[in-house]
Design goal:
It contains 15 helices and 40 strands.
């Protein structure tokens, strides 16, 4: 201690004797303690630290002394510590005994697996979930429903990853405590073949997606009615696939994410269109032609009237011109004039040009332009037909400039039966004078059109499946072969032809052609060639009862030679029974392979190119007929 401070030698020198003071009565709620036999001169009153008032004297009862209180607190502390120690032991035991198990409270797709070992948890999941995984997954998009097969959609359960989602045992004691009273759902994991799932969703989308149906007007004869609008829908395939992966295991119907597309036409626009439709069919419309009129009946108006969405939700009326022409065209046909192309005629063995004639036809687009407005009138419902000239496809001037002045290719065949001769004469008359302009392709089937009885063709002999038969138009292949050879020696470009399946001796091998049409006139086997010359060509046909000749006229530019190849790979005919009726026996003919090379030279004899064509002919079967009954 510092030397300047002097402690007293005795405490007695510092003691003052105070007079006895009677303590005041305790305040309400004040805790007092009564100490019997207080020491003489002791202070009685309230301590400076707000400790309970100590009252000295003889008490009515014995209050707790400060030492006893401290002892009670120590006892309570020991008890609390013991409880904490027990809880700690229980916590450690719980930690140790649950290691490796699925945390308490965990559920997967509604199945409780918390507290189980992973093996037991997987077994339970398989038992309760796996049966539903083989069932089709039900999907719904608005009112549309369908199902997909999980395996085909690439959906496979992943049990290991599913249990991994549950996590490890929690260390937090509060979390462990609350797990006794709560549940925690964890996601189900799926092994996904994304390509297969996307393909499945595209199949769903093809059925779900639909464009909005706009409100419009339809006609039943001359009676119009409203078509109510219907909103469209579009499937979000990516979001749908993600949703299926997430919830397919639940076994419930999955509502797919579908965006809707509202109709654009406003309801009041539909009602306005209905009023226009009723006005349009209220009376006929007359088209005034030159010398004759056409009448559009209310039924014809209703069949041709259409409505299409316009801007800002409107619905605009229009007419299908083709349907109007279908109804009115035949009525005005006599007011039109058919044009004629320039043609090449052969007089005195030389070609001359027969002049073309322009046609006159109704100009339907301008004639029908006011039809919508006229159809709304209560009276004066008339249109004036407008006409226009229709130039010939081949004009006189064009024909004179085609350079058709000399024979550039020619060929003849003969030896046909009378019925075949009739058909050859009819087709020859049709083709005679045909003009093929530079760059154009001639098609025999296309030029003649159908070749049936109405066109003058008769039934004649053909070879069908190697056996003689008869059909309308038989013999046309002989004309096709003759025309093909004429174009061959004219040096024209082959644009497609087909040889007979069986060799016919009157034709040059590998240098012949056949044609065929369906009964409706559609082409099956055709003969085509392209005029690749800078000048035009004309086809001349010369028929006699015993032969057919085709000449190609134009401007000569080539010398053409044919070099036939040898015959190889012979195949013997097989015997084949003929039909029970109308059987025609034949000895058949062997098949073989051969070729033909077209050598094209310029007019000076220099070779320009060689074109070789290889052809395989089938053996013609030997037909045997049954003995007469």
């Amino acid at each position: 201690m510092p030397d300047q401070y002097q402690w007293p030698e005795s405490h007695s020198e510092q003691t003052d004797v105070l007079p006895a003071i009677k303590p005041p009565p305790p305040k309400p709620g004040e805790v007092t303690a009564v100490v019997p036999n207080p020491p003489q001169g002791a202070y009685q009153g309230t301590s400076a630290y707000d400790e309970p008032t100590v009252k000295w004297g003889s008490p009515e009862g014995e209050p707790e002394k400060p030492a006893a209180k401290r002892k009670g607190l120590r006892t309570a502390g020991f008890a609390a510590g013991a409880v904490v120690g027990v809880l700690g032991v229980l916590y450690l035991v719980d930690i140790l005994t649950s290691q490796g198990n699925v945390p308490r409270g965990v559920t997967v797709a509604g199945v409780e697996v918390g507290g189980l070992s992973r093996a037991a948890a997987e077994t339970k999941l398989r038992q309760e979930i796996e049966p539903r995984l083989g069932q089709p997954v039900q999907l719904r998009a608005g009112e549309f429903t369908m199902a997909i097969e999980p395996a085909k959609a690439g959906l496979t359960p992943d049990w290991t990853k599913t249990l991994d989602n549950a996590g490890a045992q929690p260390i937090n004691p509060i979390t462990r405590l609350t797990s006794f009273f709560s549940k925690r759902e964890v996601g189900f994991e799926t092994q996904t073949d994304r390509a297969a799932l996307t393909a499945a969703m595209e199949q769903v989308r093809a059925k779900v997606d639909q464009q909005p149906v706009e409100g419009t007007i339809k006609f039943d004869g001359a009676t119009p009615s409203v078509v109510e609008p219907k909103e469209g829908r579009k499937l979000d395939t990516n979001a749908a696939a993600d949703l299926v992966v997430k919830v397919w295991v639940n076994g419930q119907v999955i509502d797919l994410p579908v965006a809707t597309a509202p109709a654009k036409v406003k309801p009041d626009a539909v009602q306005q269109a209905l009023a226009k439709a009723k006005a349009a069919v209220s009376a006929p419309v007359v088209i005034k032609g030159e010398g004759k009129d056409a009448t559009l009946s209310p039924v014809a108006i209703g069949a041709a009237m259409q409505f299409e969405p316009g801007p800002d939700g409107t619905l605009n009326a229009k007419f299908d011109q083709a349907k109007v022409v279908e109804a009115a065209g035949p009525q005005l046909k006599s007011t039109e004039k058919e044009g004629k192309d320039a043609a090449v005629v052969f007089e005195g063995g030389k070609p001359t040009v027969k002049p073309s004639e322009d046609g006159m036809t109704v100009k339907w687009d301008t004639t029908l332009a006011p039809l919508v407005d006229v159809s709304q009138k209560p009276s004066g419902r008339e249109l004036k037909a407008e006409y226009e000239k229709k130039p010939a496809k081949v004009t006189t001037e064009q024909a004179n400039q085609l350079g058709i002045k000399e024979v550039i290719g020619e060929f003849s065949t003969g030896g046909f039966a009378p019925e075949s001769g009739v058909n050859i004469r009819v087709v020859a008359q049709k083709v005679n004078g045909a003009i093929v302009k530079p760059g154009d392709t001639f098609s025999l089937n296309g030029f003649t059109g159908p070749r049936g009885t109405p066109q003058g063709y008769v039934e004649a002999g053909v070879i069908e499946n190697g056996a003689p038969a008869r059909e309308v138009g038989g013999g046309i292949s002989q004309f096709a072969t003759t025309l093909y050879n004429a174009s061959y020696f004219a040096g024209l470009k082959d644009a497609g032809h087909k040889e007979h399946s069986y060799y016919i001796s009157r034709y040059p091998a590998a240098r012949e052609a056949t044609v065929f049409q369906n009964p409706n006139g559609s082409s099956v086997i055709d003969l085509k060639f392209t005029n690749d010359a800078p000048t035009g060509i004309a086809i001349q046909t010369i028929w006699s009862p015993g032969s057919i000749t085709v000449k190609i006229w134009g401007t000569k530019r080539y010398i053409v030679e044919s070099q036939p190849g040898g015959r190889t790979n012979p195949t013997d005919p097989q015997e084949k029974p003929g039909p029970a009726q109308n059987c025609h026996a034949s000895n058949g003919a062997p098949g073989f392979t051969t070729s033909d090379t077209r050598v094209i030279k310029d007019l000076n004899g220099n070779v320009i190119r060689r074109d070789t064509r290889n052809v395989k002919y089938n053996p013609q079967p030997k037909i045997t007929c049954p003995p007469p009954a």
